[in-house]
Specification:
outer membrane lipoprotein receptor (LolB), chain A; 3 helices; 11 strands; single chain
Length: about 200
């Protein structure tokens, strides 16, 4: 396993899928826990159905319009707002934008840090109900990508995609841990939920 580049493998698997759906649970120091039902469809459509906080709120990003539609009281219910993805009202406390929130963006950032750092395959662990390869990518001193100096990732042995990710900033300070539960790829469109 040490000879395999699990990050490059994950990128290839992401490139080959049409869509995916996952429940994201994010924890960050000093921030309220976040849980979202997240759906992604190529070439970059994103739907976030908030579980907590703001239960019932839905956000949909369309790469065709470059806009985010926000339904504060549930998909299809008024009011409906059209916002830019860089609007601070809809960014996470860590500065994440909906148009740059998918697994592919995470992998690009990890691979960039990997190019200027060290990659360590720790071994296989259990994350929830999944067996996953634990990988640590640490940038060279002073090297950061999107404010991150170190990533810890757990790649599902079957799907080859991350099911957990932790990011650290300078001096080992934890930025965020994201658990990706119930990850499904190439979901039938009828189960994915509308993006408009």
């Amino acid at each position: 396993m040490p000879d395999r580049d699990l990050i490059a493998d994950a990128q290839a698997r992401f490139d080959a899928l049409a869509n995916y759906q996952v429940t994201l649970a994010s924890a960050a120091a000093g921030a309220e826990p976040v849980e979202i039902r997240y759906s992604y469809r190529k070439p970059g459509f994103v739907r976030m159905d908030c579980i907590r906080p703001h239960a019932g709120t839905t956000l949909v990003y369309s790469p065709e319009t470059g806009k985010v539609t926000l339904w504060p009281f549930g998909f299809g219910r008024l009011p409906k707002l059209a916002l830019s993805p860089d609007n601070p009202v809809i960014q996470s406390p860590q500065g994440h934008r909906i148009d740059r929130s998918d697994i592919g963006v995470l992998l690009v950032n990890v691979r960039e840090l990997q190019r200027h750092g060290d990659t360590q395959v720790v071994g296989v662990e259990t994350i929830g109900m999944r067996r996953a390869s634990h990988v640590i990518v640490t940038g060279e001193p002073g090297q950061r990508v999107a404010g991150v100096c170190r990533y810890e990732l757990w790649f599902d042995l079957g799907l080859g995609l991350p099911v957990k990710a932790a990011s650290e900033g300078a001096w080992g300070k934890l930025i965020e841990t994201v658990l990706m539960d119930d990850l499904r790829i190439d979901v039938p469109e009828s189960q994915l939920g509308p993006f408009s």
